[in-house]
Amino acid sequence: MIRVVIADDHQLFAEGLSQALAALPDTRVVGTAPSGPDLVALLARQPAEVAIVDLEMAGGDGLQAIRQIGATTPVIVVTMHTQMAAAAAEAGAAAFFSKGVPLAQLAAAIRAVVAGHKLLDLRGEDLSATLADYQQPELDPGAASLTQREIEVLQLLAKGVSSTEELADGLFISQKTVKNHLASIFSKLAVSDRTQAAVEAIRLGLAKPH
Amino acid sequence: MIRVVIADDHQLFAEGLSQALAALPDTRVVGTAPSGPDLVALLARQPAEVAIVDLEMAGGDGLQAIRQIGATTPVIVVTMHTQMAAAAAEAGAAAFFSKGVPLAQLAAAIRAVVAGHKLLDLRGEDLSATLADYQQPELDPGAASLTQREIEVLQLLAKGVSSTEELADGLFISQKTVKNHLASIFSKLAVSDRTQAAVEAIRLGLAKPH
DNA sequence: TTGGTCATGAGGCTGACGACCTATACGGGC
DNA sequence: GCCCGTATAGGTCGTCAGCCTCATGACCAA
Fold this sequence. Notes:
The structure is a homodimer of 210-residue chains. Chain A is of the alpha/beta class and 210 residues long. Chain A has 11 helices and 5 strands; from the N terminus they run E-H-E-H-E-H-E-H-E-H-H-H-H-H-H-H. In chain A, helix 4 links the parallel strand 4 (75-79) and strand 5 (95-98). In chain A, helix 8 (148-158) packs across helix 10 (175-189). The first copy, chain A, is elongated and about 60 Å long. The two termini of chain A are 23 Å apart. The mean pLDDT of chain A is 85. The interface between A and B is large, with 43 and 43 residues. Chain A binds a DNA duplex (30 and 30 nucleotides) through helix 10.
């Protein structure tokens, strides 16, 4: 789980991005700050793997904050205007995006900079290739070993298909096989019944309850 | 469930807000558009109860779009700069906020304009009072009739406490009482077992799996 | 006082669930 | 060729879940 902090004085943007990252299975927002100095103070008491920073904040200097924290916490700059890229690079940011970027690309960038990449040093194809490598969320150790068929069982379970009979009908297999898959799922996810498995499936992002 | 469409050319903002509204139990984003004309086209094929519109979009005129759709779909303007309030009101917007507004307030505004209020006609205390009336999400009919104790059972269930024994221990009541509460919950939520009840509890926002 | 709801508790019944074991077929790797 | 993981399927067995009815005390409103 990658811990993210957000610095942006537009609360609606910060809350929305926070929810969006929380919906991903491998990222979690552990704090937000409305200004540069607040960001520095936040990171002093709340460790995080990466910071997402808007340069245009009413309450303080974003570039100065990046200089202070950039050495210990990689910074991804996300801003309205794109002419600040050079200044962000000079201050030590690891990546730079406009707010027009798709969420999936920001998520890939988060994983990439946490892995140690400096995206601002890359250009064009190198950048695209690096981001492509990090498109997929890193699943929990347990979830990572689930087979395709087990994931299908979990997805049905998380949609409210709970009885063995309905699961079997939905997957066109016998009830015995469903039970075998469930037993395997329980073992891999360290749970003991299908209710816990459904909750865990939703938590891991393997399936949505909606 | 209130269906919301978002018009904003900053994809990250639109996706974040979409996720944030999806996390609320009574709102859902059914479409996004990057420009005014796209918004008009979107609403022509996708009905919605309310539109959230940013006035500063690269691809088209937000004000013109509001004039076209404002009569049929109430519009909440959410923008970076606040000097456009008068123009938004003239075009027929129902509400106006900066992007610094907390999500909870935007959610209250969504519920208020769907109920027919014109927030732009209100000032100061009247506005605060109206928004305060809509702070609480309107729960599903089934969920609305749940008792406090039944909600507590559901919250434990959605956290992965699935066995009757653990539920009884967690609530300091007998296993028999837990079974009785569960039977009542199944009936009210129109589900047939605790797995479906847990999924439904997460979907309704009564509890979070995290 | 009466009636309603809520939270609590109980007994009995039936079927489903979960644990454990076995087995076949089909892959890919060594 | 052999082993291992996956998907499939079957069997047995003990436990537990879900459903039925019933009862009690607290609380509140008509």
